[in-house]
Amino acid sequence: MSKVKSHAELLRSRQPGYTMPSELFSRQDVFENDVDVFFHKHWILVGVSADVPEPGDVSTVDIGKSSVIIVRDEDNEVRTFRNVCRHRGARIKEAGKATIGKLVCPYHQWTYELNGDLLHAAQMGKDFDHKCKGLKSVHTKVVGGLVFICLANEAPADIATLEETMLPRLAPYQLENTKIAYEAEIIENGNWKLVMENNRECYHCAGTHPELTTTFLAEDFGYCEEELDEAGQQSLASYRKKNADYKASWEKDGLICEPVEKLTPDVATLFRTQRLVMAGHGESQTPDTKVACTKLLGNATRKDQGDTHLWTHSGWNHVMSDHAVVSYLIPLSPDKTLVRTKWLVNADAVEGVDYDVNNLISVWTATNAQDAALVAINHSGTQDPGYEPGPYSKFSEQYVEGFANWYTGRLEAHNI
Ligand code: FES
Ligand SMILES: [Fe+2]
User: Fold this and answer.
1) Residue from 67, 83, 88, 102 whose mutation best tests the ligand 1 pocket (most atoms within 8 A of CB)
2) 3-class DSSP state for residue 183?
3) Which among 156, 273, 298, 354 is placed 20 to 30 Å from 91, CA to CA?
4) How far is the CA of 404 from the centre of ligand 2 (A)?
5) Residue pair 43/212 in contact by the 8 Å Cβ criterion
6) Rounded distance, CA 241 to CA 85, Å?
7) pLDDT tens digits for 256-306?
8) Where is the Rieske domain (predicted)?
9) For residue 204, which phi and psi values (nearest 5 degrees)?
10) How far apart, in whole angstroms, are the C-alpha atoms of residue 388 and residue 362?
11) Inter-CA distances, 301 with 59, 249, 254, 281, Å
12) Burial class (CB in 10 A: 0-12, 13-18, 19+), 160
């Protein structure tokens, strides 16, 4: 009788250069370890400061068995609390957004200030010490308008590297001075790791994403030089020239473009960033590659600032001169993953005047739907008894394998 492999044995059974074994995508115990390690013990992006634009605004996000309330307090500070009442543990807010004066538990009306202090708890007696029953705060780092949290008691210190890297890159866009023009959620029928793997390669893009591929340069996502025909060689030469020209021009304007990669398993806070040259008019991820919003972000003066992308282990973000697209996932079950996307524009931009929302969201709405379909067929195929791990392309899927290696290394670091 074959013995059921442990999570660690499944990790060790993966051949280098090959995809993960089927059970890593489907087993409940693996899923629970994944949520615990990658969503409760690492830093995760759970929102943007524009989710809570005014004091009293709250945005509640559920992550596995945990739930957090992102609050903008009276001092205009973004704080995050465990969504657990300090009385008998009821949830204080349901997932979603609201505007409130105080945080009031619906069960027995314990009432908390926006800074988490317990203000009022009836019938607890004169000697009851309110001070030690404030809401539990969660490690929070707002990096250029992106809200990261860590639910661990001790949060990985290397969020500082992400912060140092991203702050000067994001500062000119002033994402804290944006509004959410549109927000979308998809529940994908696949394991969260397949959603991430799909995001870490563009091997599939030419065959799947007609809208997205209009906006970027295909060579950015890998090529096999020895397979290039004459047209391919010419395209590569023009890609290199275009990159060199843009780099010189951006650097002259003080726009940082160098890639930074922190993707190896010794790093807890995985990320990658780079200012990518865009195709066509080079302005924005829109159907015509021109800006979708005429009121640019922050103090932008030029429209062709490229696409400053930021990958994390659970999300992907694109910041352009006129708008930003922020996407992150939350695993719901071994075969279901929530993908949430927010499109941000200048807080002063007016819909119908400065931007058309359909134009703004068109590329990523199509791309997300196409990716969801790919993840579904991928997940389903990996659960077929006929599945066996297949080889990654060395040229186009190096970041997918890098993600699989990081996944393994981080679980080992957490003694799985
Ligand atoms: S559980 Fe919140 S007031 Fe009782
Ligand atoms: Fe895709």
Assistant:
1) 88
2) strand
3) 156
4) 18
5) no
6) 58
7) 999 999 999 999 999 999 999 999 999 999 999 999 999 999 988 899 999
8) 43-149
9) -85, -10
10) 36
11) 32, 13, 12, 16
12) exposed
Supply φ then ψ for residue 247, to 5 degrees.
Answer: -60, -45
Strands ordered across the beta sheet of 78-82: 78-82, 66-72, 57-63, 96-99
Question: Any idea which residue has 């563009």 for tokens?
Answer: 202
One-letter amino acid at 268 equals: A
For 271-335, strand residue ranges (E) read: 271-276, 307-312, 315-319, 324-333
Task: Give strand pairing partners of 273.
Answer: 260, 310
Burial of 161 (0-12, 13-18, 19+ CB in 10 A): middle
What is the CB < 6 Å shell around ligand 1?
A: 85, 87-90, 105, 107-108, 110
Which residues make up the environment of ion ligand 2, defined by Cβ < 5 Å?
Answer: 371
Give the chain's length: 416
334 phi and psi angles, rounded to 5 deg: -55, -35
Q: In this structure, are residues 165 and 271 in contact, taking their beta carbons and an 8 Å threshold?
A: yes
pLDDT digits (tens, 9 = 90+) for 219-240: 887 888 888 899 888 988 999 9
